[in-house]
Amino acid sequence: MVGINGISTQVMWGEDSLKISEDGCLGKLDDHLPLRLKVTIGPEAGNFLVVTVDGKKNIIPKEVKKSGGNLTYKLTIPVRKSEDGEFFTPYPQNNLRLLKLEPNGQFQIWEIAVISQHGKFFLTTQKTIGATCYRDGGNVTMPAVKWPQLLTFLQGRLKPDNLPLIAQYRRAPAQVLENLSSNEGLVLWFNIAQGIGAIVTGEGIVRVHWSEINRGNGYHLQFLKSGERIKFTHLQKLTHTGKNRPTKFGWEVHGVRLTS
User: Fold this and answer.
1) 184-258 — its CATH code?
2) Virtual CA dihedral for 3, 176, 165, 155, nearest 10 degrees?
3) Residue 14 vs residues 10, 11, 17, 78: alpha-carbon distances, Å
4) Residue ranges per structural domain of the chain
5) β-sheet with 65-67: strand ranges across
6) For residue 245, pLDDT beyond 70
7) How far apart, in Å, do the first and last CA atoms of the chain sit?
8) pLDDT, tens digit, for every residue of 41-77?
9) 48 closest CA partner among 71, 78, 14, 80
10) Residue 130 neighbours by CB under 8 Å, 6+ apart
């Protein structure tokens, strides 16, 4: 997985510091003992804020420890046991987010998470948002991202006079969807910490869950990237029960593989 220059991570389980493999694998856990994620931000990384996001998508800034020019934050991540007997880290408690905000309104949001797949735990780092705030009259606006709570958070930290005019905003070009067969799709987004994403198909936009992905080529961590083309075996209608997280998706793809 991609890293962030100037930022280091450590995962503790009990008294042990877990070894992190090249693909982020931490191995298997066999107890409910919580994990402790330590993130250290060096001065060469730039201006980062540590935040978490609650279930209502509110942005919660976190206090960090300052020492020798470094910023350090520790997050305790609960470990739970599923009905199938496998241990896992629940979303959204399994991650923290790093917000890099420039005075000119450009910003990035990175998620650092500890997730589990098929009983194995992984440390992951993913840039989930990269966008710009603009000045519309005397107001700060964020046309490329529809997240009101984030906009409110950024408005309190930006000066409109330092931002580009809204007239300079250009919408990103639409992704090309031509030549998709009945069992092909194009990845719109995939959130590793949450374990789900969205794929556009000939039947509309559908959900994809990590457990239905097979990247092949020896990948242990299953994920997708925006813009990747995929093949799938079939679609299945989602049932909305009290056991499942609320979702706006009506259908989910199964048997997902990358196209060659």
Assistant:
1) 2.40.50.140
2) -50
3) 13, 10, 8, 12
4) 7-131, 184-258
5) 16-17, 7-13, 35-41, 70-77, 65-67
6) no
7) 21
8) 999 999 999 999 988 999 999 999 999 999 999 999 9
9) 71
10) 107, 108, 109
